[in-house]
Design goal:
Blueprint lengths: L6 E7 L1 E2 L11 E2 L5 H19 L3 E8 L7 H11 L3 E11 L9 H6 L4 E7 L3 H7 L5 H13 L5 E7 L6 H13 L4 E6 L7 H4 L9 H17 L3 E4 L2 E3 L6 H7 L4 E4 L4 E4 L2 E5 L3 H6 L6 E5 L4 H8 L6 E2 H7 L5 H8 L8 E4 L2 E4 L1 H5 L1 H9 L1
Parallel strand pairs: 1-4, 1-11, 2-3, 4-5, 5-6, 6-7, 7-8
Antiparallel strand pairs: 8-10, 9-10, 12-13, 13-14, 15-17, 16-17
The structure holds iron/sulfur cluster.
Length: 371
């Protein structure tokens, strides 16, 4: 293996117990008949990319889908194949659905090297969970988190959703307090996006979702309440206790390299961005080379700047100019200044960063200051 800096490894597991009403990720219910073949193919892919890039990985992320649905044995085999490529201190995360984790032996997960868990809670209100088509109650989610903690997991993340049917500031506050009282270290807070073609988009429930103005209020409210409880915002949708930022996800925003394995997974390696088709059959049957689709060349100054602006640490224009002498760093600085007084941006030295109010307008604001 060469001495290049370590990259990240993402493994997309496209299986779920049942499809949630709002979900547009590449995943499908159950899929048990694919587990063996899928695992074998993932192991082959780890070997294939290991040979192609000869890199070590300092983060591994099992995302989905519901990776824990695979069960300990399959996860163990994949971990064994990945271990020779992992650095000693690698952050290894597995996502799970609290409703599909009852039979999981969390101690076994820890023993095989998984050291971080991320559960899709979405809400601690059972009526809201029902409306989203989630398969768990708040009580079941709490039991899952406690059972993982008893097995020694001290780095657990929960996802919350904003703007969902029936949600009010009061119910959101209860969800935030619920997460906080469970002693988790990380919370991701996503705005619900009604994706065309999903059951939610076709149902009356869509009319119970928050409109843009109410979603914005909920977002600002969540940012404030999470900060009060020690979850400090480090990205548009991510909040962490001290020292508990997601190392793997942060690499996406720092423009660091990663390999994605599995249907619909994205990769960024050696200046090239590519992805694999949203198809389990293609993943199983088409050669890895042929199944790669080009995305963009990657590694440009504007991509670097856009990704940094998603982070609360912001964009250091001195670093931008040093890394990309062609970037219009001085012009960006001048264009950013007028947004400081209305509280959308913060400027410290040569670093510009968005406030929560700025994050709400991040696409427009990014375009305004970069181009
Ligand atoms: S558990 Fe996650 S990936 Fe699976 S259907 Fe629900 S939202 Fe989608």
């Amino acid at each position: 293996m060469n001495k290049k800096s370590p990259a990240g490894l993402y493994i997309h597991v496209p299986f779920c117990m049942q499809k949630c009403r709002y979900c547009d990720f590449y995943s499908f219910p159950k899929g048990g008949e694919y587990f063996d073949k899928y695992k074998k193919r993932v192991i082959e892919a780890i070997d294939f990319y290991g040979k192609r890039y000869a890199r070590r990985y300092n983060s591994l992320y099992f995302g989905g889908g519901t990776p824990l649905l695979l069960g300990e044995e399959h996860l163990f085999d994949i971990m064994e194949a990945a271990k020779p490529f992992l650095t000693e201190d690698a952050e290894v995360t597995a996502e799970g659905n609290p409703g599909a984790a009852e039979r999981i032996d969390f101690s076994a997960l820890r023993k095989m090297g998984i050291n971080r868990l991320s559960f899709g809670l979405q809400s601690a209100d059972d009526r809201e969970l029902e409306a989203l088509g989630r398969i768990h109650t708040a009580k079941e989610a709490a039991e899952t988190v406690k059972s993982a903690q008893r097995a020694g997991f001290d780095n657990i993340s929960l996802d919350l959703m904003l703007g969902i049917p029936y949600q009010t500031e009061e119910s959101l506050l209860k969800s935030i307090e619920f997460c906080s009282s469970l002693g988790v270290s990380h919370i991701s807070c996503y705005m619900l996006k009604i994706e065309e073609g999903t059951p939610l988009a076709k149902s009356e429930l869509r009319f119970l979702c928050a409109d843009e103005e109410k979603s914005a209020d909920l977002y600002l409210f969540a940012c404030e309440e999470l900060e009060k409880r020690g979850f400090s915002q480090y990205e548009i949708s991510n909040f962490a206790k001290e020292g508990r930022r997601s190392f793997h996800n942060t690499r996406y925003w720092l423009d660091d390299e990663y390999i994605g394995i599995g249907p619909s997974a994205h990769s960024f390696m050696e200046g090239r961005r590519f992805y694999t088709e949203r198809s389990i059959r293609d993943f199983l049957e088409v050669s890895f080379d042929e199944n790669e689709k080009e995305e963009s060349s990657g590694g440009s100054w504007d991509e670097f700047a856009m990704l940094r602006l998603r982070l609360s640490d912001g964009l250091d224009l001195a670093k931008l100019a040093e890394k990309f002498p062609e970037a219009p760093a001085d012009e960006i600085f001048e264009r950013a200044k007028p947004f400081e007084a209305p509280g959308l941006l913060k400027i410290k030295g040569k670093t510009i960063s968005m406030t929560p109010k700025g994050f709400l307008l991040s696409n427009a604001l990014t375009a305004e200051i970069l181009f």
